[in-house]
Write a structure and sequence with these properties.
about 425 residues; alpha+beta; 21 strands; 13 helices; about 30% helix; binds flavin-adenine dinucleotide; 5-stranded antiparallel β-sheet; 8-stranded antiparallel β-sheet
Length: about 425
Amino acid sequence: MSASGALWRNWARTEAVRPRRVERPGSAGAVQRAVIAAGNAGLRIKAVGAGHSFSGIALSPDVQLDLHEVSGVIRVDRAARQVTVAAGTPLHRLERLFAPYGLALANMGDIDRQSISGAISTGTHGTGSALGGLASQVVALTLVTGDGSLLTVSGTENADLLPAAALGLGALGIIVDVTLQCVPGFLLHAVENTEPLEGVLESYLERSRTADHFEFFWFPHTGSALTRTNTRMPLGAVREPRGRVSRWIDDELLANGAYRGICALGALQPALVPGFNRLAERLSGRREYTDVSTRVFVTNRTVRFREMEYALPLDLVPGALAEVRALIERRGWRISFPIEVRSAAADDLWLSTAAGRETGYIAVHRYYRENHTEYFRAVEEIMRAHGGRPHWGKIHYTDADALRRAYPRFDDFLRVRDKLDPERRFSNPYLERVLGR
Ligand SMILES: Cc1cc2nc3c(=O)[nH]c(=O)nc-3n(C[C@H](O)[C@H](O)[C@H](O)COP(=O)(O)OP(=O)(O)OC[C@H]3O[C@@H](n4cnc5c(N)ncnc54)[C@H](O)[C@@H]3O)c2cc1C
């Protein structure tokens, strides 16, 4: 099925395009036919997931492939705890799809609206310094390459391509299915606290390395951070979830409803922002709860924002954050959104932001009605000076020359791109900037 003309916009409203054609294939065969037809017409073609990337990585000016109909479980290997899902499956469906097999994803990010293919293709991650991002859980995938052929990449077939294809920026082909290494379902015991920022920075390395999942949020203009420490527990442990009402008050009213109003007011009257942030600091007290992993990892984000996130060598994070704090004070900006700090294990995927090094992440945000450019560019300078690598799905201003220096296997990735997509069927302006033509 195809259509044209509709304006496509990403979630953050930073990118928009009116593709010449939108196609909604329902099978791997239909994806192959779409790629071949695009090639015959001299058009580029790209799959789009849930449009949750802040960067222009998903823009498809020619043929946009919407894979919503390519969704669900294809195969389960119970003994190996591996599940093959169709490429367009949204993360929020996985909990139910995996439940009959007693399986779960080992780690997740803050939300679950993304498609599995979009999430792995940009290096989406959560926190936990013994765990990698979602792409590090990929054990196999099937791609439609530039000439329309199907390519299986796994531990036994074309294994040398796996470190490129599992986190491929959508540059190597259209993924039609993904096999994930899962873990037995588990609970998380969450402890949230408000603590002085100085102490959190001092203990960040140790807490990141010892907790299963440690992260913190610092509201600019305040002296404290909201810490979250999650401990993994067996499924059989006692569940003490937040009640429905408490969840609604926290997630919908405070995190989204009231917060939206505060951000909108702050955009109009920046002088109010520090006071609002101090109020948020006072309102967030200590809380503990235990629930199924997905319900603790994932939050509902309805206040629209823009984000840039940089991956740094873990031990450089406290110093870099202190520099960002000094920058905000020096420039007199009023920043209503918190800065989020997380961590991940080193992995061996060529374009993973955590490739080859124990990693900490610093993410800066701005409300979508405020101009983010000056703030993000200045923070980016600090991150680059600390050997930072930008999240592929978030805003950044880095190009291929700088990225080549940041990634030891960058040229190996380009060689795979030359092999699988010599005509740049899957390229777009963002990929030209970060990978070259
Ligand atoms: C509110 C919010 C919260 C977020 N939280 C986190 C977080 O906690 N951690 C984190 O790391 N990131 C986070 N992100 C970023 C987000 O996870 C990534 O940008 C992710 O890529 C979005 O997935 P998507 O399905 O929307 O993909 P899209 O943005 O639609 O596409 C991303 C890329 O994947 C490619 N792609 C999609 N499907 C296919 C396919 N079948 N074959 C080949 N290529 C494909 C696209 O072409 C594009 O290159 C967040 C984003 C938002 C808006």
